[in-house]
Amino acid sequence: MPPYKAVAYRARELRRAMTEPEVILWSRLKLMRADGFRFRRQAPFRGYILDFVSFGRRVVVEVDGGVHGTDHQEAHDRVRDAVLRREGFIVLRFWNSAVRENLEGVLLSIREALERPSPP
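^ thats the sequence. predicted structure below, dont judge the formating
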């Protein structure tokens, strides 16, 4: 299978198997469409799969579980975030627990990023 098809296939799998915090956040991000903010979920980009992304506003939202606390995964995430920043994205990372326990605060942070002037 060509690499781009493998990534697309994996993205479809991840959309079907979203974690509880991802489902909670996705339900709220969809409501932001009324304000003109459109998100895609589990979207492939440059070989990565982004949890949630607004391509129009260049904002990526990642919801991280415990695996992201390992040294190996933290190093991978730093490289990934640097690649995304070079592409002009703002990258926001939230722990699963933040989505569960402080959803309104998470949404406020996302909205603030969305309302920043778009990069040229």
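The chain has a mean pLDDT of 86.
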